[in-house]
Amino acid sequence: MIKNRVVYSCMAILLVLFIVMLAVLPNIKIETKNDEFSYETLVFNKSKVTTVDIEIAEEDWADMLANAAEEELKQANVTVNGKRIENVAIRTKGNSSLRSVVNSDSDRYSLKIDFDYYDNSQSLYGLKKLNLNNNYSDTTLMREYISYELMEKMGLPTPNNSYMYVTVNGEERGLYLGVEAIDETFLANNFGSNDGFLFKPDGTGSDLKYISDNIDDYTGIGLKTNEDNIEDSKLIEMLNVINNGGDLEKYIDVDEMLRYFAVNTALVSLDSYQGSMKHNYYLYEDNGVFSIIPWDYNMSFGGFGVGMGGRPNQVQVNTATETNGTDEADTDPLMNNQDVQPPQNGEMPQGGPQREGNQPPVMNGNGPQMPEIEQNQNPVQEETQVNTNTNADTQQQAGNRPQRGGMDMDMGMGMSGKLMSDSAINFSITTPVSGTTLEERPLLNALLSNDEYREIYEGYIEELATTYLTEDYVQNITNNLAAMLTTYVEADPTKFSTTEQFLEGVEGDNSLPEFAKQRSTSILKQLSGELVVEADTSSQGGGPKENGEQAGNMDNNPLQMPSDFDPSQMPEDWDFSQMPQRGEQNGDQMQRPNRNEESMGMRGQANEGTVTLVSIDKNTVIMVLISLVILLSALVFVFRFNRRGR
User: Fold this and answer.
1) Which carries the bigger pLDDT value, residue 196 or residue 28?
2) How far apart are CA 457 and CA 216, in angstroms?
3) Domain spans of the chain?
């Protein structure tokens, strides 16, 4: 007969083994081909910076950089966090940002990696395509990341993304934001099917105005999937309904689109459908119903400039204090500043202080100059008029540097380090368009012209202003990112801006949390009626009104950007030689970051040492279940044997 102590000892050993298996197995990275979406954690791990090492023939790399605008595919091998994928395709990517970098002395291009181009069975843990975004025009390096974070929090189908440090043939290329491509894999992961129609509108028809019943007339609505069955698409029917009336819910996911436009409006993301460019979004038609997918947010947080191609917002603060009925308003410095001269022969305007040091030049009548700007100088006030009958603090100075059409030119190539502008902070939530009209954006107009839908939209706007686009919430994100990224930013030899400018975005008067604080305050005041923003969206120009009168024709404003402005069309004789060279921003030679140093997780407190990637795949689950069955069987056997022995 087996003694009780032997039985209990066996039971204890089995329990210990089972507990050890539960603790150890989840931390063992077991690759499996059964989990087609394991890239979500294995590639886009937000708690650390992913390493991307590209190997490409030197002549191919040199040709790619020399002819970046061609976006020609080259063969390469890529290693991501130690996982090597051979025979992949790589190319430069971008639109106006690509052309702008081409016209500069930088070669920091965004890149697109196609893992299955040469072999359609090949992927990186299920990921077929990876975008490496160069953070063009964003000195904070965080606008796009935080925008996707808020989109995800509001339940939108959002591409996976995380920070990645890139090398090419062992040479440092720097810190990029890796973003999942919107393709069949993304669709299957987010919608459960990729059998529908994926559109990427950009061009004729991307405003979603009804043109005709012939789909060939919508040349700017690019179809990305299921091209052979386009005749089965309900696109024309959807366009007809949003333009001419009908059952919206039959053709579009109304609630999802209201959430999308609420986030876009709160973030003042105007390089989008709501701006003059009418692009940077996807539509996915699944069983005749259209969903919207967010895309490209490096110019969110007002980075694109309110009023580009149109007139600025008219802002009125309603207060309890009454005066003699006359609205007091500041005149527009743009119309009265004698130091700002009209451009001559296509050159940038003269005037404004100069800057010393390794900063990009701005153009004036005498050629490239190095602007010297003191932090608190305000040579040009934002093109937004705040009418108030008190001395309320709601009136903001727009920024520290002259602009061209709403884009800060002090850093070159459209780089903007300024966040605190009235036109962005007080961007209208009732008429949330810029450089266009609601009527010119029929999808948004159809939603907001419905009282029931508008109420839901305003509810989402309020949720953002009180929960996610708040100073505390955004501050937590920027603090965590600063702890994780600062070393990489310092080491980045190709970065467009300085480490100091990156840190300015983390906290302080010109930071993303401060923007969130002021923007959410403005949203809540607009919702309550305390702040009335009349968005003047005419494309004919015109300026801020003083006491009800026109302040002048903005068409004559040398700093106003036309609606068709192309940032790549800079003067051919623009001398970029004085721009900071790679590795010079901080003086000393930069070193590659230590991959094993401390980093902070995005959703928790700082961790000591290297962050361990935790992933549980199907094999792990099966092994745990089998172990559990074996344990239970063993326990039953021991008890039965023990009773029989008695």
Assistant:
1) 196
2) 33
3) 4-32+626-645, 39-180
